[in-house]
Amino acid sequence: MKLKTMLLAATIAAVPAIASAQSTTSQGAASGAAAGSQVGGPIGGIVGGTVGAAVGLAAEIPNAFITSVERANTPNVVIRERVVVGERLPGTVRLHTIREYPNYRYARVNDQRVIVDPHSRQIVRIIE
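The chain above was modelled as a monomer; its predicted structure follows.
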């Protein structure tokens, strides 16, 4: 059992590298699900697909949107949850838009600027 857990963790860690080579969210999800399923079965497929989709979506974000987020004067919100790619932001965190890019949302959380999937509130990229 410990071996399966370690292999699943290794696969999940590898999913961003696999998915970053993809050009779309759906391809990232499919690659992540396939990699996760090979090691962790159905649960691994679900986890891998979720992470792969987040990484796939991050690969599609236009650089101009990222630059706009970096320049935006957005208030910081402090939360207890982890601020990592793949985690969801709580409903109390206000998501902001940039007029030219209505399909994307962002927030400044725990002094980090994050790009968020507006439907799931899942963090898809942390801007450093």
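The CA atoms of residues 95 and 107 lie 5 Å apart.
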